[in-house]
Amino acid sequence: MNGADHVTIDNFVIDVFAGTYGWGIRLTNSADSNVISNCQITALANSTSSNFAGIVMSGSATAATTSGDNGDGNLFQGNTINNGYYSFALAGLSAGPFASNNRVINNTIIDQYLYGIYAIYNENTEFSGNTIYHYTRSSTTSCYGIYLTTSCSNVLISKNRIYNLLIGTPASTSTTYGIYVLGDGLPGTENKLYNNIIYDFKGNGTQYGIYNSTGDYMQAFHNTISFDDINATSGATYGIYQTGAVTNVDIKNNIINITRAGTGLRYGLGFITAGTYISCNNNDIYLNSGGSDSIGIYTTLPFTTLANWQTANGGAYDASSLSLDPIFTAPLSGDFTPTNSGVNSSGANVGVADDFLGNPRTLAAPDAGAYVDSARYRCWDYLGITHAASWLRKSDSNC
Fold it and tell me: What is the pTM of this model?
């Protein structure tokens, strides 16, 4: 789509698994206000080449993330992307103005090699409601669900489900990241990570739920992170990890649950750089792996209990947090509604008005995590089909 505007591509089946390059759709040269919806794009299975991708915004015909005035105001919705080095690669203009108002919503991303969603030089962008997972991929490396890098601000990352990374290579020691933030937000245009569910990564490598590397002005609110692989034999684990000097990183109302088996250090929170400005509170941080569990690590010092952790960095963190088993409703089938009433109303008012399913929150004292814990809001059925989007709205009159 070279300079194309106001074009809709809907319900296409696109196979790009032959040749040297295979990109399903490319936008470039100010391709603005287009809609790509309900398409199925399949790249070469198990390829490790960066020449294969699903949907690309790039200034080059041979590199998926090249700077350029590639497009603004585009909507990518309801697509299924199979395989590829990148499933989505969105690059804006490095010198500015950056790509703006692009939205990646309610897509299914299966078996990416490295990046599910990759963004660089983007602002006022939204990645919401996407399902990202591995299914049959047998060639893997370190991989990312969502990767936010240079000059990305005011990006909303919400209600995404990221799970089963490395399921096809359970002996792998590759590193997995749910959401990786490297780009800086700004005052009033923070990068917002709300209501995401990250869980059930496989393999024996290091696992990170949310990883922030020098990303200023990031908000991580109401996420649920659960690393619970009973078959793991090794690998460090971090719920939320931050490294590098930052300004105004805010971490509140999250549930972090780590029961992953095997050897390896386990940390609910990892704040590696001393003196950084992080506000962290009203979380539920629970570890019970039977290994080397710590609620958090500050610089190189682990704190094994919540009471210990509350003394870290002069008592800066988690004074009003909990360390309770959330007792999820049905984690094996993807329902991470907590049933432990002790978690109820434990959050702070951060202005996130609804939960992962769109159910309203009580803002004054919200439940921690991505789900509201109320029986009247449990209005979705899981179909038990790991190969596809698997959630249906119930027809119950109470829903």
Answer: 0.93
What's the pLDDT score for residue 275?
86
pLDDT for 384 equals: 47
Query: Which residue shows structure tokens 């990221």?
Result: 162
What is the reported pLDDT for 374?
Answer: 56
Contact, 338 vs 371, CB < 8 A? yes
pLDDT averages per 10-residue partition of the chain, 399 residues: 98 93 96 98 95 98 97 98 97 97 98 98 98 95 97 98 96 97 96 98 97 98 97 96 96 98 96 93 95 95 98 97 97 94 95 96 95 60 44 43
The three-point CA angle 65-33-91 to 5° equals 10
pLDDT at residue number 168? 95
Write out the two tokens for 113. Answer: 């090699």
What is the per-residue pLDDT for 315?
96
Nearest of 145, 159, 172, 140 to residue 336 by alpha carbon: 159
Please state, in angstroms and rounded to a whole number, the distance separating the CA atoms of residues 32 and 99. Answer: 10
Q: Secondary structure of the chain in the HEC alphabet?
A: CECCCCCEEECCEEEECCCCCEEEEEEECCCCCCEEECCEEEECCCCCCCCEEEEEECCCCCCCCCCCCCCCCCEEECCEEECCCEEEEEECCCCCCCEECCEEECCEEECCCCEEEEEECEEEEEEECCEEECCCCCCCCCEEEEEECCCCEEEEEECCEEECCCCCCCCCCCCEEEEEECCCCECCECEEEECCEEECCCCCCCEEEEEEECCCCEEEECCEEEECCCCCCCCCEEEEEEECCCCCEEEECCEEEECCCCCCEEEEEEECCCCCCEEEECCEEEECCCCEEEEEEECCEEECCHHHHCCHHHHCCCCCCECCCCCEEEHHHCEEEECCHHHCCCCCCCCCCECCCCCECCCCCCCCCCCCCCHHHCCEEECCCCCCCCEEECCCCCC
- Taking alpha carbons only, the member of 178, 180, 188, 186 closest to residue 212 is 180
